[in-house]
Amino acid sequence: MAEITASLVKELRDKTSAGMFDCKKALTENNGDVEAAADWLRKKGIVKAASKAGRVAASGLVTIVKNDKMACVVELNAETDFVAKNAQFQSLVSLVANKALELHGDFDATLEAVKDDIAATVSTIGENMSLRRIATVSGDHVYSYVHNALVTDMGQIGVVVAINGDDSRIDEIGKKVAMHIAANKPEFMTIADVDPVSVEREKKVFIESGATAGKPEMVVEKMVAGRIQKYYAESVLEEQPFVMDPSKSVKQVVAENGGKLAGFAFFVLGEGIQKREDNLADEVAKMLN
Q1: Are 108 and 118 in contact (CB under 8 A)?
Q2: What residues does 241 pair with on adjacent strands?
Q3: Among 10, 27, 81, 218, which residue's CB has the most CB atoms within a 10 Å radius?
Q4: Letter string b/e over residues 17-39, b meaning 16 or more CB atoms within 10 A of that residue's CB
């Protein structure tokens, strides 16, 4: 067996643009023969996948899978909206999500388990794809909601929420709470979850806005306290007015149905990814010059 040196791995990487781990594996499988290893990578679809790895993938699908006690939301990205409609891509999304649920949301373990499937799909479809994130919630009851669903449980916004309790009425409210989360996008579940730094920042912004200028200290304190309560009502799930009955908070509605929130998570497809803006006129002009 030939020794797989760092220089051999680098040579194959320079030749194919494949990842270091894949290059080492290819060389091991082919007794250190760089050309044979390159062919091996091409047959596996890894070379073609690697050549697309630098392209921005901000489209794709968010999906949800669940069992009796756990729900898992997964975002798998591709480059264009068209791929989301591709049956092969949808099958890949389903495979990845089910593996994520099986592995209790462990991102690294899931990625390791499905990386060859992703590479093969990239090779076939011809777009960069990436597993972006995974989140899980668990509790006595788990509920989900997918907004703008393209197919069952796959769309642009995915929400999972867990509620503890043994009251049969919880089922009446579970999906409604998930829909509320999709509409209101809370940052925290309870007031106790709120980062104190965020609260202090909110106070500072409110005071510096000039709203309290010239007011007596006691009045300022009440105004600031009121602003923080408003902040909680905007950003904390339990404190938000329930979208289907704004006279009550989400916490009240869940409690009235015999439950207590145990956790939630939601993904908005492509949120936070900086997409490249192409100008077709500029591209054509460059080609003509």
Answers
A1: no
A2: 249
A3: 27
A4: bbbeebbbbbbeebeebbeebbe
Residue 245 CB neighbour total at 10 angstroms = 12
The DSSP-derived string for 88-118 is HHHHHHHHHHHHHHHTTT-HHHHHHHHHHHH
Tokens 């579940």 map to which residue?
189
Cite the beta strand spans of 148-237 per DSSP E. 154-155, 157-164
What are the residue ranges of helices labelled H in 17-102? 20-29, 34-44, 46-51, 81-84, 87-102
Which tokens go with 282? 């500029």
pLDDT-derived band at 288, boundaries 50, 70, 90: very low
Nearest alpha carbon to residue 248 among 192, 173, 182: 173
In this predicted structure, the answer to whether residue 124 has a pLDDT above a threshold of 80 is yes
Contact 258, 165 (CB under 8 A): yes
What's the pTM? 0.71
